[in-house]
Specification:
2 domains, elongated, SH3 type barrels, single chain, 259 residues, five-stranded mixed beta sheet, five-stranded antiparallel beta sheet, 12 strands, alpha+beta
Length: 259
Amino acid sequence: MRKFILLVLSLLLAAPLYADVVFFNDGSKSVGKIIKENDKIVVIREVDANGVTCETEAQQSSILKIVRESGETQKERLRRIKEARKIKIERPPKPAPIVKPKPAPIVKPKPAPVVKAKPVEKPVVKPVVKPSPAPVVVEKVKPVKKAARNCSYRLSRRENKDITLDNIRMQRREVTIVVSRKMPFEVLAEVFECVAEREIRKAKNLDALWIVVMRKGLDTEGLPSAYGLWAPPGGWDDFMHTQDKSAYRWEYRKIKKWM
């Protein structure tokens, strides 16, 4: 019951306070908050299942319709969120203390009287002929090949962005890569790992990496489609926490709508 209440609270509290829906001509849609709109473009802010926020820009010509949440519907959803916050989670009672039983007194048994046994005649044992073992056939097991990662990209530009502050140097690098226009957005995580491994081999003390993604044949005006950031917990300028690379995190963001 406690797990169910926590699940309901997390779903309600994580829900956004807005619900604008943009329907596109190709049948897809975006759910979020419209933060900019004019005669040519519409920009909508979305939040995915992992809590990552991204802003999608779409042309008015590609939009079929826009459905905005009414004020009454928004008030009703806010009321449900406030009621969910009032739910009290009952903690289970503390277990009763364990009482260890006292050990029983040890009673030493009296020794049994010794009775001399009659000698036993040894039986005649015939030698046992052991059969020769059958040859063991060892089957060779073929190793299972791991699925190869998608490392299909072309390096377009590499530029160092190092900073030095209070005698501490943070080695940062910004690279621009070009990928296929048909590559799904979900595959970029594998491509980013390939780029990071390659750049770390070139600069062993690399502290932060900014990866700009251009799609071939689409990003001709200089505006990239997405980016990935590998950096300390505090971000691109967090030069105080560069020692523990295990605490680093990835951040991905779409800049344009990814078809």
